[in-house]
Amino acid sequence: MSIIYKYDYVFKDNNNSEENIIFCHGFNSSPNSFKIFENYWTKSNYYALQFPGNNHTEIKEADDATVECYSDLLINFIEDNKLKNIILIGHSMGGGTISLAYQKKPELFKKLIYLAPTNKSSQNVTEAFLRDYFPKNFDEFIGFFKSLYYDVSKFTSNESWMRLVKNTFDPYDFNNSTITKLGQYLISNEFHDKLELALKSVNIPALLILGEDDGVVDRDLCLEYFKENVKNVKALWMPKTGHMMFEEDWDNFIKIVEEFLNS
């Protein structure tokens, strides 16, 4: 099978094209951020897409670094590769990508899974996002990790890890013009208003999973917001986890996801 996509992607062929899971990554991230699921999953074919402007990915042709563009790339990927019975998983910014894609072509999709998604209810943590996601020195980079994980000590107590990241940290990775522009766009009222309309249009089974303490998602407000705006969403949070809840408590995470997929 020759896959059509102009950016990097992950494809795990599980010999079941009757159902397809596609993962959409978060801000300045990559398809590899969900490697733990990729390694585990065997029940249907699995894809994860790289979106331009993130993780130093060059922006090609007429594309740009916006969630609107990412949702179009996602739809084109599905249609170009003639995929069917699509289940979308969106982490953080990826939650916006899957919402806008659903709004544009709802007939393509079977279920939606939101993992700590960007949304209007998190506007009260905008200051934390602007502080933590654009580190300019190593100490600020550790602050970024504290925004991602409930317990960052597993990293900071590892001397070899600390030494490695201190030697390889480059502020340009987090502060180049494309990423700073995308970051400003993600907190804009214009984007959040578009996203709210997309969420209100969702009319298929949807699952929301949050961490207990997330630096850029207000847990309680997000739960309330999704219940108000997404029809029949199943919404919950996982104790002792943060923005990367699937890494911090994999066993409970995959149990929740599989129960939803099997329902």
TrEMBL record:
Any one GO CC term of the record: membrane
Name recorded for this polypeptide: Lipase/esterase LIP3/BchO family
Family the entry assigns: Belongs to the lipase/esterase LIP3/BchO family.
Organism domain of life: Bacteria
Domain AB hydrolase-1: 21-248
MF terms in GO: monoacylglycerol lipase activity
Pfam families: Abhydrolase_1 (PF00561)
Keywords: Hydrolase, Serine esterase
GO biological process, one term: acylglycerol catabolic process
InterPro entries according to UniProt: AB_hydrolase_1, AB_hydrolase_fold, AB_hydrolase_sf
